[in-house]
Amino acid sequence: MKKRWNLDFDKLKVFYYVAKAEKFTTAAELLNVSQSALSRSIQLLEDRLCLKLFYRHPRGLTLTAQGKVLVPIIGRFLNEMETATEKLYEEEKKPKGPLRVIAAAGLLTHYILPYIPGFLKSYPDIRLTLISNDGIPSLEFGEAHIVIRPPIPSSEAEDLIQKHLLTNSVGLYASPQYLQEFGTPKHPEDLDHHHLIAFGNHPDAEGFKGMNWHLTLGTEPGVIREPFLQINSPQARLEMAQASLGIIALSKEHPGLDNSGLVQVLSDIPAPTVKSFFFYPKALENSKKVMVFQNYLEEAFIRDYGSPTPELKKGVK
Known about the structure:
Elements lengths: L8 H13 L2 H8 L3 H15 L4 E4 L2 E4 L1 H26 L6 E7 L1 H8 L3 H7 L3 E7 L13 E4 L10 E15 L1 H7 L13 E3 L30 E2 L3 H9 L4 E5 L11 E3 L7 E9 L6 H18 L12
Parallel strand pairs: 3-4, 3-5, 7-8, 7-9
Antiparallel strand pairs: 1-2, 5-11, 6-9, 6-10, 6-11
Helix pairs in contact: 1-2, 1-3, 1-4
């Protein structure tokens, strides 16, 4: 007679999150529970299965052979449960239920938040969660239904639908006081002698290369200038430039730039653009919640900027 296990759904979910995160700390943040609770849950699951699923070591966790077998099975199960839950919500005439959106910090603060009050007034039964994150979350991991950010590498976007949402052009800016002290760069090579404030070269920077433009402008191939200061917040970069700390790369459409007192430099040099996209899993292609959120933003951009994928103008009307 085959042995049957009465497995707890929540413990399986905990196992999957911990396996993907490879650390109790990261999984605890995602699930909003304590590390000790996660550890107990894993121990109880291992006891129930009479199997060891993880090797514990000081730097984190490593799956055992049995754990590696279980991960894709639980992943498919959780994905099917998520899809089934979404279909139940879709039976309702009006969109309702939880909707988790992760967006790059600058996009969320300056281009998405201004429209959220109107969206929730139109769809009061949607329980919206907005998360600011410049990294690339795993939609398979269940972190979000929607991600709004610059391009995701094709290897990580195979099962995602993407819609071009907006395009920002980049410029270089500094305060008059900084330029008076250090001089105004006339040629790209002059940036070698300036304090440069950049987005930075940390792992989240891949989609934001335009904001590091001045680190390579006018240099030899492969040469990257060392930034004086690295900040992944566009508003913080603007404020540091206002404090005369250096030259920043910033979206020309950034709200508040017009009244910042900053001066554009090297404006005759062709500048890069930063494109942002709306990503969601193919399994949610017909989700009412996802569609109404996407359509609401697109219609808002058409109304305020004249195009669903605009070269943006300043601010929100």
